[in-house]
């Protein structure tokens, strides 16, 4: 297996939709995701991906901002790796690549949210050195 980690070009963003659909259990139509990603790539958002040769097998969004409590930070969003590639150290390699990449952009902290019922991710992120600082709340308007 020959893995490549890279930032996907905004013009290629729709390539991630099948993986995001798996992550979100198809809660959103392709059309909604295409519209949202088209808007996201015009904001402080980049998308990191993993390829196994020519096959897209992993994705995560990167939101860049400055926060009063963290300084310049990256928020890691919608992390997904195909099931066949999990539990083999690939997630750790991917995050290591991301840490190096975002440090070059001036980030000194990384943040993320994970669903409360996603226990395997909690263990993974604890092992990566993340700490729980609070709860993420959402209200639909």
Overview of this protein structure:
This protein is of the alpha+beta class. It has a single domain, classed as Aminopeptidase (3-Layer(aba) Sandwich), CATH 3.40.630. The protein has four helices and five strands; from the N terminus they run E-H-H-E-E-E-H-E-H. It has helices spanning 17-23, 30-40, 90-104, 119-127; strands at 3-7, 45-52, 55-67, 71-81, 109-112. Strands 1-2-3-4-5 form a five-stranded mixed β-sheet. A hairpin with a 3-residue loop joins strand 3 and strand 4 (71-81). The longest helix has 15 residues, at 90-104. The protein is globular. The termini are far apart. The mean pLDDT is 96.
Give the terminus-to-terminus CA distance.
45 Å
**Taking strands numbered 1, 2, ... along the chain, how are they ordered across the largest sheet?**
1-2-3-4-5
Helix content: 25-40%
Number of strands: 5
Could you name the CATH class?
A: Alpha Beta
Strand content: 25-35%
- The coarse overall form would be globular
Q: CATH topology, what is it called?
A: Aminopeptidase
CATH architecture: 3-Layer(aba) Sandwich
Number of self-contained structural domains = 1
Sheet bearing the most strands, described?
5 strands, mixed
- Which stretches are low in confidence, meaning pLDDT under 50 for 5 or more residues running? none
